[in-house]
Specification:
28% of the residues lie in helices and 25% in strands. By secondary structure, the chain is of the alpha/beta class. Strand 14 and strand 15 form a beta hairpin. It is globular and about 70 Å long.
Length: 395
């Protein structure tokens, strides 16, 4: 696999700052080598992974579980977030505008806008399974991707990219598709994880580096640099920590609106290296190293004790633990997840069972909860089945 150009300045002059091979379900085809790198010319932080556009698209159509989850950014029902988006966009759109949500997931934001009277709204989604879910609910969604937008030249007033740009391999190509579809003076609304706030929006060990599909780590400066190169003018930006379904955790949101312009004279920006992003990433890595050391110590205690362990929640947090600790060396009785599709998968040749299996956990067992967002519901279930062993949560 060839070295990846910096997505911002196209330089090949980069330095590896954190390599890790993430563990995952058995038989996953997507390469899981994450190579967080710093561009030595402009300072942007990106992943120079052993992956390309074709492999990434294969992940979204085969290996991901977004289509069976209702989590943040999968296009599920999240009315409060959609209300906020509409409030932000209101000054720049009207009810007759053609609005397209690219990477719309289950397309609930599309439905929300249509319900608010924006009748010329539709979605574009790469994953056929997501398309079928949306179309089954009568929501207008077309199969496509950011690199293959199914629209004519200058036909769209607003393109929406929430939780998309951090995934894109060839940003230059995809942004040129945006320019082609947008009308003159059309707008693009982008939301990405704000890498400046990875530490303040901590979820779990290396959470923001533990998704192999997240390959671009933006802050406002670099997202604007990228868009300016393609003749887009920044109209507004908002940085906030957006609450998840578990109020103890938040999403480090960076939202920006850009307008398509024809002349570079309308744009003023300093296209230079900005050390703030690298400094924040260095702090994040240092903090996560400390947490990983703490968790390695706790897991080593479980290994040495040979106590029976039920691990509940087979997602990002779990795969981070088995990557950075000896969790799979514990006396694991069962891996547990409510997701029926995951129950057909294996991890290290271990089967995954439904939460019903927890009824076999006795007082001499530990239930390790590895889904921080669902901790409250998990504890409630364990109480309902009268589990009287030890509940362990690592955060």
């Amino acid at each position: 696999m060839k070295k990846r150009n910096c997505p911002i300045c196209q330089s090949l002059n980069s330095k590896l700052i954190m390599p890790v091979v993430l563990k995952n379900f058995d038989n996953i085809k997507t390469p899981l080598s994450t190579r967080v790198s710093e561009c030595l010319d402009c300072g942007f932080i990106f992943n120079d992974n052993e992956i390309d556009v074709e492999l990434l698209n294969g992940f979204y159509t085969n290996d991901n579980y977004y289509f069976v989850e209702n989590s943040f950014g999968t296009g599920g029902k999240d009315v409060s977030r959609y209300e906020m988006y509409e409030k932000i966009l209101d000054p720049y759109i009207n009810k007759q505008d053609v609005i397209v949500d690219v990477g719309c997931g289950k397309a609930q934001f599309v439905k929300y806008l249509i319900d608010q009277g924006y009748s010329n709204t539709c979605g574009v989604e790469l994953d056929k399974r997501m398309c079928q879910i949306a179309i089954g609910q009568g929501i207008p969604v077309e199969e496509g991707s950011s690199s293959k937008l199914p629209f004519g030249s200058m036909s769209v007033d607003l393109l929406v990219y929430t939780h998309v740009f951090e995934h894109l391999w060839d940003l230059d190509y995809d942004i040129e598709q945006v320019r082609g579809c947008l009308k003159d003076d059309g707008f693009i609304f982008i939301e990405v994880p704000n890498a400046m706030n990875y530490s303040s929006a901590r979820v779990f060990d290396y959470f923001w580096f533990s998704m192999p599909e997240h390959i671009n780590h933006f802050n406002e400066h670099y997202l604007e640099m990228l868009m300016v190169r393609h003749k887009f003018k920044k109209i507004m930006s908002i940085e906030t920590i957006m609450p998840y379904n578990n109020p103890l955790y938040g999403y480090p949101s960076l939202m920006m609106i850009f307008r398509k312009v024809e002349s570079d004279s309308e744009i003023i920006i300093e296209n230079k290296c900005n050390s703030k992003l690298k400094n924040c990433i260095d702090i994040y890595i240092s903090n996560e190293n400390e947490k990983v050391s703490e968790h390695q110590f706790i897991i080593k205690g479980l290994v040495d004790s040979k106590i029976k362990v039920f691990v509940w929640g087979i997602g990002i947090e779990f795969f981070s633990l088995i990557t950075f600790t000896e969790l799979l060396s514990c006396n694991i009785v069962a891996l547990i997840d409510k997701n029926l599709d995951k129950q057909n998968m294996t991890v290290g040749d271990r089967n995954i069972f439904s939460p019903e299996r927890l009824k076999q956990a006795g007082a001499d067992s530990v239930v390790l909860l590895t889904s921080v967002f669902n901790e409250e519901q998990m504890r409630k279930y364990l109480k309902e089945i009268s589990f009287n062993g030890r509940i362990l949560v690592l955060n």
